[in-house]
């Protein structure tokens, strides 16, 4: 299998972490594919031109990190259990990623088409999501599950792209979750580059 990924994509990072957590490093080659360069390998596998994209052994491709994560979980020998609560948290975490990535894209656009409205709207959504997630965690939720992982990746992305966000302030539960994940080898080894 091949995972087409970018070092700065939080969606791809989630999948790269899972490859390590599930012991699939020898079964999945991670191939660098920058989505804005429209490389032919990526476009042939995923006409949407987005990462991550997992090319399965039979040549078919899976797109979207949530689908890829489910597939990796299915082929792993040390599967994570999942229930509707975990899937709900994963969806909230993915929404957090969507808002943060959308904010980033808006902020690097040409100033002539820059939209303060959309930046503010996404910022407000990020804050609401963080507050909701803080309220969800009471310390009893399993860390090694798709929801907590997705949230931890989202928090890491906020640190990477928006260090001024101060998401830790007043969010002890999210901080505990983040510290649990950020100490793991799979999380450390997939940190995005600091020079971008």
What features would you describe in this structure?
This protein has 2 domains: 2-75, Glutaredoxin; 84-188, Up-down Bundle (Glutathione S-transferase Yfyf (Class Pi), Chain A, domain 2), CATH 1.20.1050. It is 54% helix and 7% strand. It is built from 8 helices and 4 strands, in the order βαβαββαααααα. The protein has helices at residues 10-21, 40-45, 65-75, 84-107, 116-136, 146-161, 172-182, 185-188; strands spanning 2-5, 29-32, 53-55, 61-63. A 4-stranded mixed β-sheet has the order 2-1-3-4, with helices on one face. α4 (84-107) runs antiparallel to α5 (116-136), α4 runs parallel beside α6 (146-161) and α6 crosses α7. The longest helix has 24 residues, at 84-107. It starts with a strand and ends in an 8-residue tail after the last helix.
What is the name of the CATH topology of the largest domain?
Answer: Glutathione S-transferase Yfyf (Class Pi), Chain A, domain 2
User: How many discrete domains?
Assistant: 2
The quaternary organization reads as: single chain
Total number of beta strands: 4
Number of helices: 8
Distance between the termini: 28 Å
- Shape type: globular
Helical residue percent band: 40-55%
**What is the structural class?**
alpha+beta
CATH first level of the largest domain: which class?
Mainly Alpha
Please compute the radius of gyration using only Cα atoms: 17 Å
Mind summarizing the main beta sheet? Answer: 4 strands, mixed
Spatial strand sequence of the major β-sheet: 2-1-3-4
- List segments where confidence is low: pLDDT < 50 over at least 5 consecutive residues: none
Give the topology string: H per helix, E per strand. EHEHEEHHHHHH
Strand content: 5-15%
Mean pLDDT: 92
């Amino acid at each position: 299998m091949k995972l087409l990924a970018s070092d700065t994509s939080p969606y791809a990072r989630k999948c790269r972490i899972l490859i390590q957590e599930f012991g699939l490093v020898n079964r999945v080659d991670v191939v660098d594919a920058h989505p804005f360069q429209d490389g032919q390998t990526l476009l042939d596998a995923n006409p949407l031109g987005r990462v991550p994209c997992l090319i399965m052994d039979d040549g078919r491709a899976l797109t979207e990190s949530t689908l890829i994560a489910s597939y990796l979980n299915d082929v792993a020998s040390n599967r994570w259990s999942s229930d509707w609560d975990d899937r709900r948290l994963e969806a909230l975490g993915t929404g957090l990623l969507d808002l943060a990535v959308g904010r980033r894209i808006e902020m690097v656009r040409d100033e002539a088409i820059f939209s303060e409205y959309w930046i503010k709207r996404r910022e407000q959504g990020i804050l609401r999501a963080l507050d909701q997630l803080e309220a969800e965690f009471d310390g009893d939720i399993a860390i090694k599950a798709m929801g907590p992982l997705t949230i931890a990746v989202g928090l890491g992305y906020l640190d990477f792209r928006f260090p001024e966000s101060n998401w830790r302030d007043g969010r002890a539960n999210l901080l505990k979750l983040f510290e649990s994940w950020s100490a793991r080898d799979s999380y450390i080894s997939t940190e995005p580059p600091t020079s971008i």
